[in-house]
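Kindly inspect what follows.
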Amino acid sequence: MARLRRPFTEWPPMATLGRSGSEALAARFARALARELRAVGINLDYAPVLDIHTNPDNPVIGDRALADDAEGVARFARAIIRALQEEGIAACGKHFPGHGDTSSDSHHELPVLDHGRDRFEAVELVPFRAAVEEDVACIMTAHVLVPAYDADRPATLSRRLVDAVLKKQLGYQGLVISDDLAMKAVSAHWELGAAMVAALAAGCDAVLLCDPKPDEQAAALEAVIHAVEARELPLARVEDALARQQRVKARFLDPRRATAAPDAGEVIGCAEHLAIAEEMAAFRSFTRKGT
């Protein structure tokens, strides 16, 4: 949604929703956003951010976060996920297991979250549990190193986090998508093909390769094929990933929704949506009592 500029409605930062204290406003925002996306044929949005803004010096999350406390993020995330998906847009919670308390940007280097497991259970994982309970269509992994779970591999490449924690412990049955593997947190340490194989082996069901270099993308795909042929990447893991993708597509590629899509000219940037954005913007600098 951050990539779509006028004539689309340009939405204020998500922190405004947390500051408003209104889950109803969050739901109205999400429904309006969903209608604009559906009007141009988009059925997946990489939102909401489930990271908690616990570190004011975080260079990458900032006001993208819904709140600075776990329960606040969970409450508003539930409202957004529910509204988006009721309107036919697959939601994607990110970035598992949490990117809110980092002091570096994974686009440029590998952040380390040096908290114990008890802290993750009590804080970072709370919004992800809520998202799982709301049957969120997708969850995106973070390129962060969490030594309490895996001292060697960032979350995206870690079976101990993606498979053991997200899928087994939290019981997530949806689609797990990696963040962009071209980000320096991964690409500075792992060759792209090896990273792609490792992400799939860890439990990612789809990977993002956003750097538009066809030769590198083709080589990464070849690496996956060779890994399956060599039985380094179990065929059962690939089949599970495909099954998860098919379940999400079955939910959100409903031809009846396509025929019911609103007319773009009547929906994009309409007065109702602009009024919601203006209502959100009123909370840009609002400070809650006691903070």
